[in-house]
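Schema walk-through. Below, the input block comes first and the output block second. Nothing else is stored per chain. Lengths vary across the set, and this one has 59 residues.
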Amino acid sequence: MTDLVLTVDEAAERLRVSRWTLYNLIRSNQLRTVKIGRRRLVPVNALIEYVDQLTEEAA
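--- output ---
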């Protein structure tokens, strides 16, 4: 089974950015997250949507 959600650290690693940068993306509503209990998690499809959006803007 593939992961549905990632921790902030895992998401930052996948995007090849720092935790600080990832939290800035979250704060600016550029990257969707979900909260489960006290944990902030990033859905894998939110990463795909974010990268797709960057690709469209660059075209």
